[in-house]
Amino acid sequence: MSEHIVKSYDRDLEALGRRISEMGGIAEKMLSEAMDALSSSNVELARRVVESDARLDALQREIEESAVMTIARRQPLAIDLRECIAAIRISGDIERIGDLAKNIAKRTLKIATEARLPRAIVGLRSMHEIAATQLKDALDAYALRDVERARAVWENDVDLDALEDSVFRDLLTFMMEDPRNISFCTHLLFCSKNLERIGDHTTNISETVVYLVTGEAMPTERPKSRGFGGPDNDPQ
After folding, report:
1. DSSP labels for 194-234?
2. Which of 44, 95, 133, 161 is the most exposed place for a label (fewest CB within 10 A)?
3. What is the DSSP letter of 54?
4. The pLDDT of residue 231
5. Which residue in 17, 35, 5, 230 sits closest to 139, CA to CA?
6. pLDDT for position 1
7. Which of 80, 209, 101 is nearest to 149 (CA)?
8. Is residue 194 within 8 Å of residue 103, measured between CB atoms?
């Protein structure tokens, strides 16, 4: 970030970056704890994840208001304008990632008392590992203004999409094997979709990082998975 004659201008832009960093840390923790709660039927942990979302929402609003005020007061151009726009975009994606982690926690609250099917959660753990790594790499790419790392996140999203397809098939098999698994596995299908959508938002963040640093947009067509889709929407 280049320095300005008006130091308060630098402080405004640095404050945006710090708030993004704080949001990223909260979202990473929410995702990790939501999956821990799902794996162990930990109701208290799931409730804490749900409660954490309020702080993420508040930070997103603060960032958006600060970025808009900075644009109004400073009338930034080029990289400075992109800094403000990137902060708005990325905070929106992180806030949505928090919502999706909260959805997983809320599903945990619904199925905590149901009969467990440990095999059904194995694939979700693998999806979580990829999604968490993608999120960390995207946030690091933003902090370091690292275009190559951002492009790698964008390209690797296809792995998460392919794994979601595999999990979808496995859960359908479990449901066909025993109708008593239907309710439990249906909730897991939505958790799987939540993880896939978290991957989409980390990809959005990586696209914004490339735009921030280069001023150029990534291709509109992303790498495709190998097909066989699951459910599209998760009711709130």
Report:
1. HHHHHHHHHHHHHHHHHHHHHS-PPPSSPPP--S-------
2. 44
3. H
4. 42
5. 17
6. 59
7. 209
8. yes
Distance (Å) of CA 119 to CA 170, 181, 190: 9, 12, 17
Task: Evaluate whether 157 touches 130 at the Cβ level (below 8 Å).
Answer: no
For residue 45, give every residue at least 6 positions away whose Cβ sits within 8 Å of its Cβ, in sequence order, or none: 33, 36, 37, 105
**Of 9, 12, 17, 1, residue with least CA distance to 87:** 17
Mean pLDDT, contiguous 10-residue spans, the chain (236 residues): 68 91 97 96 96 96 95 87 96 98 96 79 94 97 96 92 92 91 93 96 97 89 56 44
Separation CA 197–CA 203 (nearest Å): 10
Query: Which of helix, strand or coil describes residue 5?
Result: coil
pTM of structure: 0.89
Per-residue model confidence (pLDDT) at position 89: 97
pLDDT value, residue 126: 95
Distance of CA 191 to the CA centre of its chain: 13
- The tokens describing 74, both together, are 């400073």
- The span from the CA of 18 to the CA of 24, in Å, is 10
For 135, residues 6+ apart whose C-beta sits below 8 A from its C-beta are 24, 27, 28, 31, 97, 198, 202
- Residue 5 has a pLDDT of 57
